[in-house]
Write a structure and sequence with these properties.
With 402 residues, the chain is an alpha+beta fold. It has 2 domains: 5-228, Nucleotidyltransferase, domain 5 (2-Layer Sandwich), CATH 3.30.420; 237-401, no CATH class. It is 40% helix and 17% strand. The chain has helices at residues 10-16, 20-26, 49-55, 92-102, 104-110, 130-135, 155-181, 194-211, 222-232, 239-244, 276-283, 287-299, 361-371, 377-382, 387-401, and strands at 30-41, 56-57, 62-71, 77-85, 117-121, 139-141, 259-262, 308-311, 317-323, 331-338, 343-348. Strands 1, 2, 3, 4, 5 and 6 form a 6-stranded mixed sheet that branches. Strands 7-8-9-10-11 form a 5-stranded antiparallel sheet. The protein is globular, with a radius of gyration of 24 Å. The mean pLDDT is 88.
Length: 402
């Protein structure tokens, strides 16, 4: 038996299924449970109207079934509970309330050893279950929310949120692994399979637990990296943002005379040449690096130039604007400070742009291009539009001229 709350103890979770990151962030003797909902697409039901209504998701505009995954920080799955209808009444918070109310085996596991601290790792979709967790005396980590009318998280909020998302990556990898290995779960599932899709998913998950290595694997340097991330949490103010985003500052947006526009910089401009490991240390993970290439591809003009501005009164300071991938009307202001050897500081006007624990994808795009891509011809070549993308870009330029 390799699945279900009854097949494992809290002591085993702490000793065998807790990453170094989790131990550094939360201390020894803490059993961390990562909760996350996932979904499987199903065919539309034309005969059963009730099932059609219950499985239709207004968010995805498709019929689907939901499951709740409970994993450890190394990606080992404790339980996969479901299926549940895909309508708005069965969101992550409501599913969690239902599970904590009826899943007696899970509650027994959580209460089995009072010496071990229980902590849930959640995303913002679980915000309505916080009162229940406090009533049950269960600690939890959750990314911070922006107050109404505020555009950015504070540096402190951004730092704490990054520690939480760093641990939550394990459950995302689990969801990706079973859908990639078994395409049946990635494609639209025939309506006739609905009665057995739950048992099938549990069998697959048990196989992953039994025969595959945990999805989260790090090098021997992970403890040092975790300690470095924890140390950066003590930085509660982004000084570069105060310097370049303040209108009264001589480096601020209104003082354009102190900035010089440049299409590209020579390779000997002083910006350090970096490898991917250097950039990963800066981002504290691979996700931002994966997105950097897409942001760079859009930021380059028709001639392949990367537009930005260099400060004329202080060496080693540049800024640029990166287009949001969600809104046409939104452009994020990015500033990077550097010396001959490393990137010293950075900031961005996006939601998480003030954090010091890792950097956002917009900052990564600038650092990746100037520090890595322009030194590697293959990377520059990969940024050029090809095939369908090239034809679409050409059509958009024609439309823009008209």
């Amino acid at each position: 038996m390799h699945l279900g709350p009854g097949h494992i103890s809290l002591e085993e979770i702490v000793e065998n299924h807790t990453t170094t990151y989790s131990k550094v962030f939360n201390g020894q003797g803490t059993a961390h449970f990562i909760w996350d909902g996932t979904y499987l697409y199903i065919q539309k039901s034309s005969a059963n109207h009730k099932i059609q209504r219950q499985t239709y998701s207004m968010q995805k505009n498709r019929n689907l079934l939901k499951f709740m995954s409970i994993c450890t920080t190394d990606g080992y799955t404790i339980a996969i509970i479901g299926p549940y209808p895909g309508d708005c009444m069965h969101n992550d918070a409501n599913l969690t309330k239902d599970i904590l109310d009826i899943e007696e085996e899970l509650l027994e596991l959580l209460k089995s050893d009072p010496k071990i601290l229980i902590k849930f790792c959640l995303d913002r979709g679980f915000r309505d279950v916080k009162e229940l967790l406090e009533y049950l005396k269960i600690e939890y980590d959750m990314p911070a929310f922006k107050p109404k009318g505020v555009k950015q998280l504070t540096t402190e909020q951004g730092n704490e949120s990054r520690l939480t998302t760093k641990e939550r990556g394990a459950v995302e990898r689990y969801h990706g692994s079973f859908k990639k290995i078994w395409p049946f779960f990635q494609d639209t599932i025939d309506f006739s399979f609905i009665p057995i899709v739950g048992p099938c998913l549990r069998i697959v998950t048990a196989v992953l637990n039994a025969y595959r290595r945990p999805p989260v694997e790090y090098s021997a340097q992970e403890e040092q990296e975790a300690l470095s991330m924890l140390a950066k949490c003590e930085e509660t103010v982004n000084k570069l943002a105060e310097k370049v985003f303040c209108d009264k500052s001589k480096f601020g947006p209104k003082n354009r005379k102190n900035w010089s526009a440049m299409e590209d910089v020579p390779l000997d401009d002083g910006f350090p040449a970096l490898d991917l490991m250097d950039i990963r240390k800066l981002t504290c993970g691979p996700y931002q690096i994966q997105k950097a290439k897409d942001y760079c591809r859009e930021h380059l003009d028709a001639n392949g130039d990367f537009h930005f501005q260099v400060c004329t009164i202080e060496a080693g300071l540049l800024r640029c604007q990166i287009q949001s991938r969600h809104k046409n009307s939104e452009k994020y202001k990015v500033a990077v400070q550097y010396n001959d050897n490393a990137v010293v500081d950075y900031c961005c006007s996006c939601t998480a742009g003030l954090r010091k624990v890792g950097c956002c994808s917009h900052v990564t795009a600038v650092v990746w291009y100037l520090g890595y891509a322009r030194h590697n011809p293959k990377e520059l070549e990969s940024l050029k539009p090809k095939g369908l993308t090239k034809r679409i870009d050409k059509c958009l330029r024609v439309i823009k001229k008209q």
